[in-house]
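Consider this today:
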Amino acid sequence: MLDLGTLLLACGVLLIGAPLLLILLLRFRAAQSAANSQVTKALRGQETVAFFHPYANAGGGGERVLWCCIRSVQQNHPGVACVVYTGDTDVTAAGLLETAQQRFGLTINAAGVHFVFLSKRHWVEASSWPRFTLIGQSLGSLVLGWEAICQFQPDVYIDSMGYAFTLPLFRLLSSCRVGCYVHYPTISTDMLEQVRGRRSDVACNDAMVARSSILSAAKLLYYKAFATLYGMAGKSADVVLVNSSWTRGHIDTLWAVPDRTCTVYPPCDTAVLAGLPLERAAKDFTGKLVLSLAQFRPEKNHALQLRSFAKYRQQKTGSGSPDVRLILAGGCRDDGDRRRVEALQKLCSELGLHEEGKEGDGREWDVSFRTNVPLKEMQILLSQADVGLHTMRDEHFGISVVEFMAAGAVVIAHNSAGPAMDIVTPLADGRRTGMLASDDADYARKLREALDETSTEDRRKIAEAAREAVRDRFSQEAFEEIVAQRLIAPLRKPRQKNT
């Protein structure tokens, strides 16, 4: 018979050896599969940097980061080829590059970037996980990451969209170095506090859970467990870039690798926008324009914009005012986004706001929805806007806020996270750069202040200070230079044994 010591030793060998054997088998399987792919054959012998960005064609701020990173590699590391893992199977490589040009004005050298098209993107879509969305999407990212690693294995892997669980996957199953650009922590200490406080007015906690002490306790346990796993995944990164002070605080708490973490503000087209006149361009209507720039995603809270605008108009005249209009412009990615736009259009009607293009009583429109507008039209809207409206709570950074400020609009942003901590802050001499608000009543007051109670001269002073605050600090050129130095260059070096 085996004695207890031998049995424990055998169990220990099995517990350690089985995972190692599985990792070796998966490494072999992935390498064998990737060796036969067209991208591998095309790039054999070249140094490569790959970006994991399943929604590369979405046209939002995260995509500007992706394309600016690629441009940074092409300009500062010309011997390195770029690869993009994307789930946009309905778009060609040429179409993706055309979107980068039309939406962001960025010209990418097509010969220096290759695309790996992934067919399993539905695994990371929120609609696939109506319950346990956090863990579901994270496990789904492993499935999508496995598909990616079986098609191409780079020298450097960068998660540029927030799928942290792919970091240990690529580190374990390939010999590449791994890094990431974190736009937003998948889970935050704020979310834990909101569940602990049984709040029902936040996106991460519905009313049914908030009403039940048992469900709240269970959800808090789930969140804590997920936060632990998320932290373990993040520790796999050799280099971590975060986009704001708010994100940095949460990532330092959850990942605990401050020596490998650097804050790099995302790129904004401040040079072009700062060239626009501070005097607002002519519009096709008489009056003032309030502009929103945000993808039609739930967290952007367009409904708050409509409620705030309706409240402002009611307070001003009692029955609405025809001389101020609201345009909501933003990316519309899929059927879910399109349904959200339809719901917002219905809310317009309920609030007594007349939508552009809808038949009615003959009066002028109050609100207009503009989806997937090209860059030229976006710049025209920014040149016309008197006020820029932003309503997302805990926005990690807020590229649209920077764009408003650079273009000369007076910004009213949500009083939280990136906008409050990094962007809409007074200059060193105390000059005001914008306004902050938190709920519909607050936004209505700030709209009244910006549009009706602030003189033309004072509005110009705010716009001048805002432009000065953002022009150089958040430019594309500054971003690309820092990415080349703090992300790409360190990841091209061999990994140190103590990391």
Observations:
- The chain has a mean pLDDT of 89.
